[in-house]
Amino acid sequence: MRVPRKCNERCYINRVLPVLMKKHAIQITKFDYRLANKLDTDLQKLRCRVNYHALKFADHILKMGEKLVQRMRSSSKHYIALHLRFEPDMLAFSGCYYGGGDKERTELGKIRRRWKTLHNGNPEKARRQGRCPLTPEEVGLMLRALGYGKDVHIYVASGEVYGGEETLAPLKALFPNFYSKDTIASKEELEPFSSFSSRMAALDFIVCDESDVFVTNNNGNMAKILAGRRRYFGHKPTIRPNAKKLNHVFLNRNNMTIGEFSSRVHIFQRGFMGKPKEVRPGRGEFHENPSTCICEDSEAEKKIDWGRRKIGKGSVTKKKDGDDMKNDTETVHDENIDYEPEMTDPEDEDDEDSPPGKVEVLSNGTSIDYDTFMSEDTELDELLSD
């Protein structure tokens, strides 16, 4: 059964509980934004157990997702996963402009008319405020500036990208080892999932969650949930672009050297790299910042020596007395950070025929040597001048 949108305690006891006891599974949709972040400690702990240990994807989804992860690992020991939201409806909903001229304005304007309540905003103001998802090229430039070399393998989870291959070409030039579920799985393997957008998204979710570094160009629900899971399971690196600050860097990249560009990206990304204490307890939504689940683990932060993990060259210097001195890649508390506004999904579709039940919990191995995963590439200098 589906749980009614307006269901109080009596409703749950009289209508939901009997079905749960009989069927052992129910489907609950579109309710997460109604959940309170502040609950009693015992209830919050229960919420953590459910969110990160009890729920899992159905077996056939989990099996296929694990197969995709194995194929990525077989091509490279480490890989980046990018959740790329750049679909036409997303861009139209955001009200942003990406330089496509009258053609882009006409096409996206037509889509915007689907939402009667949307007003015509100022695209330049939206970009200055960090409301525009980064383009594929901008994501690639950000990653290269952070020290990820051309040899890095990247898995891209996305829907229909506006502009198609022409839009993706700059990202593929920056990272030629470019993969998606469509390139590492056959049509026959994906056929049981392809008719259901949520099942296809679940496959991407699994591959993204198992990646060594997760990157997103948006602040939507999937990105937030993955960020929360990766915090919970050992603060695995999760890079969220500081779009508000990076906008100025991208606009002026032709007027600065590669060193200046890289330095500014490093500075503006402090606090957006998935490190411990980036977000204070109580800040952010629960599924993005499960602080009540992890704050009691006093050993969690000790397990990861973030100061010694380099991002490109020169991220750790030495004092004269031999003590390490961390530079601008170290953790910064969120009171010094401009947080991005929420980027919601314009069309949060449900799959009517999706079976109720399972949302997955994956393994939590996180120890890797990131120094071997990152390299400096002088070709970025040429790419920045394009």
TrEMBL record:
Q: Which UniProt keywords apply?
A: Carbohydrate metabolism, Fucose metabolism, Glycosyltransferase, Transferase
CDD domains, per this entry?
O-FucT_plant
Q: Where is this region: Disordered?
A: 313-386
Show the ranges annotated as biased composition (Acidic residues): 337-354, 374-386
Compositionally biased tracts (Basic and acidic residues):
318-336
Alphabetical list of InterPro entries matching this protein: FucosylTrfase_pln (IPR024709), GDP-Fuc_O-FucTrfase (IPR019378)
The biological processes this protein is annotated with in GO are: fucose metabolic process
Name by which UniProt lists this protein:
O-fucosyltransferase family protein
